Amino acid sequence: MNPKKVVTWLIVAFVVFYVIQAPDSSAQVVRNAGHALGDAATSLASFVKSLT
To answer: What's the predicted TM-score (pTM) here?
Structure first.
């Protein structure tokens, strides 16, 4: 079996385990990631706007 495939399945299994064991914490992680992506998009838009 391909080692890359094994690692991928291990990561998926860990994420599923984490979500089942700590749903509130995993929801907070997703929320934080969403806020970080939103902030990055806002900063990038501001940068592009300042170029014009």
So the answer is: 0.65
